[in-house]
Amino acid sequence: MSITTDMWILSNKKRGFMVNTVHFIDHTWTLQRWDLRFVYVSSPHTKDVLPNVLVDCFLEWNIDRKLSTITIDNCSTNDAMIRLLSRKLDTSSLTLSGSMLNMRCVAHILNLIVQDGLSLIGDGIERIHDSVIYWTGSPKRRQKFDENACQLRV
Fold first, then answer.
1. pTM for this one?
2. β-bridge partners, 33
């Protein structure tokens, strides 16, 4: 079984929630996806608190010995959490003795890469945005823009 877990923090309430989702192939070879738990996690959301919440979920569903991977966001707290979690589980019963337990979320990594790239070209994008707003701000400007585009064959 593969687990995906994520934390959401309500900014206005400073309250945190964790969702744990399991993915597995059933006896008919059909991929299954179940949300096991959506739970309030009291503050602070540290590397010491989060593994306990996960282990409780695993024990509640009796899957603590059936795990192959846990997919989480790419942050240092999660890295430390996985190290502590590995100490709480019987890794000998896990796939490859738990050596592949920590899987980084590709969507999160891609988001970080895009955000990094956007920060480099943000000024250019803002100038283009301002230009579009200016040229489409009135019918007369739009007409002038179209005339110039035709003249320049753009």
1. 0.64
2. 23
Nearest-angstrom CA–CA distance, 95 and 35: 21
- Would you state the structure tokens that stand for residue 66, as one six-digit string? 């059936």
Concatenating the DSSP letter of every residue in the chain gives -EEEEEEEEETTTTEEEEEEEEEEE-TTS-EEEEEEEEEEEPSP--TTTHHHHHHHHHHHTT-TTS--EEEE-S-HHHHHHHHHHHHHS-GGGSGGGGTT-EEE-HHHHHHHHHHHHHHHHHHHHHHHHHHHHHHTSSHHHHHHHHHHHHHTT-
Whether the bond into 139 is cis, omega within 30 of 0: no
pLDDT tens-digit map of 70-102:
898 877 788 888 888 888 888 787 777 777 787
Q: Which of 71, 66, 22, 13 is nearest to 41 (CA)?
A: 13
